[in-house]
Amino acid sequence: MRFYNTLTRKKEEFVPVEDGKAGIYVCGPTTYNLIHVGNARPYVVFDTLRRYMAYIGYDVKLVQNFTDIDDKIIAKANDEGVDFHAISSRYIDEVFVDIDGLNVMRATHYPRVTEEIDDIIKLVESLIAKGFAYEKNGTVYFRAAKAKDYGKLSKKNIDELEAGARVAANPDKEAVSDFVLWKAAKEGEPFWDSPWGCGRPGWHIECSVMARKYIGNTVDIHGGGDDLMFPHHENEIAQSEAAMPCCSFVNYWLHNGMLLVDNQKMAKSEGNFFLVRDVAGEYSYEILRFFLLSVHYRSPLNFSKELVEATANGYERIKNCLRNIEGEPSHAENANIEAFWGEFCKAMDDDLNTSNAIAAIFDLVRYANKDADKECLPAIKATILKMCNILGLKLEGDAPDVDVAEIEALIAKRDAAKADKNWTLSDEIRDELAQMGVVIKDTREGTKWHLSN
Ligand code: AMP
Ligand code: ZN
After folding, report:
1. pLDDT digits over 117-127, tens only?
2. Residue 282: what are its φ and ψ, rounded to 5°?
3. What CA–CA distances, in Å, run from 427 to 415, 424, 432, 434, 444?
4. Any atom of ligand 1 within 6 Å of the Cβ of 224
5. Is the CB of residue 26 less than 8 Å from the CB of residue 63?
6. What is the pLDDT of residues 339-383, one digit of tens each?
7. Per-residue pLDDT averaged across 401-418, rounded?
């Protein structure tokens, strides 16, 4: 599989830190509101990446944080006269409603800043001890200019950053480019005790701590929107590599493009946002997911109801095709179908090109509707379902409730167990498949399957 790596600005073959494993860290939302369609994009994109990588055999770990303490959360809590925890936990619950609706698989971990304070303090202490950070009036700053290659991700030059800074100079900072690791608490704000007095973490430090703690010293893939590349991701690198000079923090940086409205970034602060909840109510969660995958993840995507409607029509074509194929999906060797499947995988392997992968689904739908022999149709149905399963599209109400991608992954696991002469495991998998209603047959051409009636 190849990825466009923002760090090198090149497409590169994916080589994991550890054979067969993939550790993915994605920056999650600040929880003071319901999520909008822009926030849903990284959820859906990196969930699709995870599904595909798992399908092709990686043991994937995906970690996505919640920023559950922040100025905006505190402001909302003050408005409502409640504790900040009440706000962040309310909106974290709401995120789960939306991402479950979008069929996003649960991440391996969802760390929250307020539960990682001790480790954050330890990392800040170590950065001070190494000379990368300093305390002033209860706030701790990172010396950006001291970090090796600061600016390497966003391609910014530290001297230009210094010269170009227009923000009013903070007299406590040694240099304009220095950034906050730990913030002294203001009157009335929530705080934690620290060696520097009462305060709370700065924003960037949480991701450095969580990525290392839940994934390891080097993260295979770090995701997030391209709005976070600078300063957030640049600062994550600076902190992590200063603390651990032996390891590069992240091997592949993947950034999704922005969801736009009339060519402006969709943002809570701009007020030009569409809530996932509202769009799902008007269309459906699955149409929204399909819409978000309809273009390559790095391209900007303009949101409009007309575009969502066009997407809904396309989605209906796939569902119609499946509806019109009588009988249950089943597996059969067929060179034509293999060619469509090959196109799908080629697109997904090429920097997760879901747009081309969806084009392969439409090609197969066209083939099923026009040229295909009748006896191929159950296998075409199985292949379309497999493609949709990998993209996390449920085809609600119109497809048999079977996850072909999962069935095939289990069959591959059983084939490997058989090759290892691990008959216990291979029998266990056969039983698991049987419980799912899948009958398998070992043939000279490999394992075939169909659904039991
Ligand atoms: P935030 O709560 O703004 O920190 O955003 C949470 C996640 O959503 C981050 O990965 C952001 O990059 C991403 N994000 C925010 N706004 C947009 C947008 N308009 N389009 C795409 N991704 C976005
Ligand atoms: Zn982050």
Report:
1. 999 999 999 99
2. -80, -40
3. 11, 5, 9, 10, 19
4. yes
5. yes
6. 999 999 999 999 999 999 999 999 999 999 998 888 899 999 999
7. 90
Q: Environment class of residue 428 by beta-carbon count within 10 Å: exposed (0-12), middle (13-18) or buried (19+)?
A: middle
| CB distance 201 to 181 below 8 Å | yes
> How does pLDDT run across 176-225, given as a tens digit for each residue?
999 999 999 999 899 999 999 999 999 999 999 999 999 999 999 999 99
Residues, CB-to-ion distance under 5 Å, ligand 2: 27, 207
Burial group, residue 284, by CB count within 10 angstroms (0-12, 13-18, 19+): middle
Q: 201: Cβ below 6 Å to ligand 1?
A: no
Mean of the per-residue pLDDT values of the chain: 94
Distance 30 CA to ligand 1 centre (A): 9
Report the atom number in ligand 1 closest to the C-alpha of 266: 19
> pLDDT value at position 453?
67
Question: Best of 34, 227, 266 to mutate for ligand 1, by most ligand atoms within 8 A of CB?
Answer: 227
Q: State the residue for tokens 């790596």.
A: 5
Q: Is 272 in the pocket of ligand 1 (CB under 6 A)?
A: no
Distance 37 CA to ligand 1 centre (A): 9
Q: Which residue has the tokens 């249950």?
A: 328
Decide: 39 in ligand 1 pocket, CB within 6 A.
yes
Proximal ligand: closest to the CA of 88 = 1
**Nearest residue (CA) to ligand 1, atom 1:** 29
